[in-house]
Design brief:
By secondary structure, the chain is mainly α. It has a single domain, classed as Hypothetical protein af1432. It is built from 16 helices and no strands.
Length: 334
């Protein structure tokens, strides 16, 4: 009995003709025996879920650095909210839930510590450039499992690479994740901003609240419902024109009031300086990098790249500990 083959047949019967069928994956970079029980995208989801890079997300900043409180989002809780929203949309549209979830769970694996502050720092100092989406792909292809990578399917890696607005994903499932990422971060970041006292619900402009709703929950429901209704039965994932305009207005509002807020971002310059200092230190002291990272030089990777690999793998807590160990006299550390 081969359960996987039965599940592949079931996909054919119940999924939309526009879905990415597990049996039609473009495959993995390395040959891998099929599982008798799990579908290929289900295996990818499981590999990501059990990876070290996924576990590290719990100690990486989402928006607020070192917040006072237990209920602020981290990069891990952001990822879980993206995955939940994405699965809801995929199920409603009869698309491949396992592929959608795998992409969502893996989309930020290569993110730096300290959120986008860390990413900006590496982009500024690294002559090769830095993008967390590209780094997430590198993480699953090359950095996980001591250089072996997770050997994920093409469709999952494509979705991870193209999850940002500028990306051009090849599956509808990946397009769902791209929307879900934006929907999730704008709404949970607003929730965190209200918790931090930076915003109140009454601050939301009426041109947004009159269309999308007056609470975070109402707005979240509005965009998900709209995405489903506008995409149902179509070979595309899209919002209505009104919803798309409203989302852009909401994003502009969040940038003005939260993402560029002096109070919310008061510690980010310190975080950027810390990342830049660590980058320059390890670039001059390659021998101080872990063996698994250093061996990438033998495979043709440049020193700047492997330093960014190491830094992007750090959690906030580990980066601070390394900085203190390297640059702060031990007697001064309390």
């Amino acid at each position: 009995m081969n359960i996987r083959e039965d599940l592949e047949k079931r996909e054919r019967e119940i999924l939309s003709p526009y879905a990415a069928f597990s049996a039609e994956t473009r495959g993995r970079d390395r040959e891998d025996d099929k599982c008798d029980i799990r579908l290929d995208y289900q295996r990818d989801r499981d590999r990501i879920l059990h990876s070290k890079s996924f576990r590290r997300l719990k100690d990486k900043t989402q928006v607020f650095l070192t917040p006072e409180g237990d209920h602020y989002r981290t990069r891990l809780t952001h990822t879980l909210e993206v995955a939940q929203n994405a699965r809801t949309i995929a199920k409603a549209l009869r698309l491949n839930e396992e592929l959608t979830e795998a992409i969502a769970l893996g989309h930020d694996l290569g993110h730096t510590p300290f959120g986008h502050a860390g990413e900006r720092a590496l982009l500024r100092v690294n002559p090769l450039g830095f993008s967390h989406s590209e780094q997430s792909v590198r993480t699953v292809e090359k950095l996980e499992k001591a250089g072996l990578g997770l050997n994920l399917t093409y469709e999952v890696r494509d979705g991870i690479k193209n999850h940002q607005t500028s990306g051009s994903p090849s599956t509808l499932e990946a397009k769902i994740v791209r929307f879900s990422d934006k929907i999730a971060y704008m709404h949970h970041d607003m929730d965190d901003a209200v918790r931090a006292g930076i915003l109140t619900e009454s601050d939301i402009p009426r041109e947004i609240s009159d269309v999308a709703g007056k609470t975070t929950g109402e707005r979240l429901d509005f965009f998900i419902q709209n995405l489903v209704s506008e995409s149902y039965g179509k070979n595309d994932i899209r919002l209505s024109e009104v919803a798309d305009i409203t989302m852009k207005k909401l994003r502009d509002f969040m940038f003005e009031r939260v993402y560029q807020n002096v109070e919310a971002k008061s510690e980010e310059k310190k975080a950027e300086q810390m990342m830049e200092t660590l980058y320059h230190y390890y670039l001059k002291n390659i021998d101080k990098l872990p063996v698994d990272i250093r061996k990438l030089l033998d495979e043709g990777d440049k020193p700047a790249q492997i330093v960014c690999d190491y830094l992007s793998m750090m959690t906030d807590r580990f980066a601070i500990a390394q900085y203190e160990y390297l640059f702060v006299p031990q007697s001064w550390i309390t």
